[in-house]
């Protein structure tokens, strides 16, 4: 029997944050589970939870509504309830250190200053869980907060739309195979 997987998209709840750079994880979840679509979404674990199928595998999708910096509360509840191994949780978030639209998958490691990842690591008691980072570009000096809470403009929007398509494919490979297969396919130079 296939292991249950959980995809977590990080972001901040509410219309004020919709479409911001920091909410790229939510944007990916919305591609996997379109709002108002045929897949039922429930409020559970201080977030929005849905069950989808990827390549005949059951995959849970979660958007924590705890605000980015407290995402671990929601993720920890889901992991404990479903008795998931951290390796079966894929966290999707923005990354200031990657060029706009570049994606990178890792099997675990440092939070790289991303406070949502930091909180998840604290709640899970490990930083060894897969993460899919989507590049949002580097902010101007001293403007990180305004930058991450800003929206993509002009040509960036097209780059992000392409990145979300690629990221959706990476999620599918991770769910159907494993993190190593996703890393091998999507971390190379041709994956830009």
Please describe what this structure looks like.
There is one protein chain. It is built from six helices and seven strands, in the order βαβββαββαβααα. It has 192 residues and is an alpha/beta fold. Strands 2-3-4-1-5-7-6 form a seven-stranded mixed sheet, sandwiched between helices. Helix 2 (71-82) runs parallel beside helix 3 (115-124).
Layout of helices and strands:
Layout lengths: L4 E5 L14 H9 L8 E4 L2 E8 L2 E8 L6 H12 L6 E7 L7 E4 L8 H10 L6 E5 L8 H5 L6 H22 L2 H8 L6
Parallel strand pairs: 1-4, 1-5, 5-7
Antiparallel strand pairs: 2-3, 3-4, 6-7
Helix pairs in contact: 1-5, 2-3, 5-6
Distance between the termini: 34 Å
Question: What composes the largest sheet?
Answer: 7 strands, mixed
Strand order in space, largest sheet: 2-3-4-1-5-7-6
**CATH architectural type:** 3-Layer(aba) Sandwich
How many individual helices? 6
- Domain count: the total is 1
Shape: globular
The residue-averaged pLDDT reads: 92
- Rg over CA atoms, rounded to whole Å, is 15 Å
Low-confidence stretches: none
SSE series? EHEEEHEEHEHHH
Keywords: Cytoplasm, Hydrolase, RNA-binding, tRNA-binding
Subcellular location: Cytoplasm
Organism: Paludisphaera borealis
Family: Belongs to the PTH family.
Keywords:
Rossmann fold, 192 residues, alpha/beta, seven-stranded mixed sheet, Peptidyl-tRNA hydrolase
Give a brief description.
The protein has 192 residues and is an alpha/beta fold.
């Amino acid at each position: 029997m296939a292991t249950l997987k959980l995809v977590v998209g990080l972001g901040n709840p509410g219309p004020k944050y919709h479409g911001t750079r920091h909410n790229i994880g939510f944007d990916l979840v919305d591609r996997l589970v379109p709002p108002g679509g045929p897949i039922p979404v429930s409020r559970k674990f201080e977030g929005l939870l849905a069950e989808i199928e990827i390549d005949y595998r059951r995959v849970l999708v979660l958007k924590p509504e705890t605000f980015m910096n407290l995402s671990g509360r929601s993720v920890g509840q889901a992991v404990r309830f479903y008795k998931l191994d951290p390796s079966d949780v894929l966290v999707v978030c923005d990354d200031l250190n990657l060029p706009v639209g570049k994606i990178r998958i890792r099997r675990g490691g440092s939070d790289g200053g991303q406070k949502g990842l930091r909180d998840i690591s604290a709640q899970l008691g490990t930083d060894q869980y897969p993460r899919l980072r989507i590049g949002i570009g580097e902010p101007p000096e001293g403007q990180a907060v305004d930058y991450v809470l800003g929206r993509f403009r002009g040509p960036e929007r097209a780059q992000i739309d392409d990145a979300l398509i690629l990221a959706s494919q990476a999620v599918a490979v991770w769910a159907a195979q494993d993190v190593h297969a996703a890393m091998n396919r999507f971390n190379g130079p041709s994956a830009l």
